[in-house]
From TrEMBL:
This is ATP-dependent zinc metalloprotease FtsH. Residues 189-202 have a biased composition (Basic and acidic residues). The keyword Ligase does not apply. GO terms for molecular function: ATP binding; ATP-dependent peptidase activity; metal ion binding; metalloendopeptidase activity. Residues 2-181 form the Peptidase M41 domain. Transmembrane segments: none annotated. One of its GO terms (biological process) is proteolysis. InterPro entries: ATP-dep_Zn_Metalloprotease (IPR050928), Peptidase_M41 (IPR000642), Peptidase_M41-like (IPR037219). It holds the Pfam family Peptidase_M41. Residues 179-219 are annotated as: Disordered. Its cofactor is Zn(2+). The keyword Transmembrane helix applies.
Amino acid sequence: LTAYHEAGHAICHYYCPTQDRVSEVSIIPRGQAGGYTMALPEHDKSYVTKAEMNEEIVTLLGGRAAEKIVLDDISTGASNDLERATKIARSMVTRYGFSDKIGPIVYGRDEDEVFLGRDYNSDRSYSEVIAGEIDAELRSIVHGAYDKAVELLSGHIDQLHTVASYLIEHEKIDGEQFERLMTGELSADEEKKPQAPEKDGAEAPADDTPNDNQQPSQE
């Protein structure tokens, strides 16, 4: 399950052009996470575009989409992904004005500015009608990103199986290995050939080369 979940994240990263390259994928548990997919930025960014935020949500939902496609079931492993995806979508609509329907207006406070004991919803300064429109836009963004993740993974199902199989066998993939898996240069069942161990106490082979200090044997 974890192998397909992380493979789903990684492959969505690969096919979303605005996202950073995958640097590592692992199914080794770390903390409460069963695995992780890491993508390191190649350069610093001072701003983020609407397309980047949309595709970030696609990559976050890639794990859940992979579970559904391959196993026809979903797990609680995507809970943090869903939380992050929803937060990004809300920021797009209420903070950055990225919704064509809602418009370039900031609604409510930044979630980080809500004081202890005050609920975010109770602190809002807009009507129930606007709140309903915001919720509808959030659903539209997240559902659209999920559909995109399903489309990407369904269209590259062989690569999904390949990456997941390699993870099951090796537990971890670095960025170079991932690129080679995606291009077909590395197969899922390829393993590192173990080096033959040296035998302890093995005698060195005899050297038949004459030594300059030795005299040839006389017959």
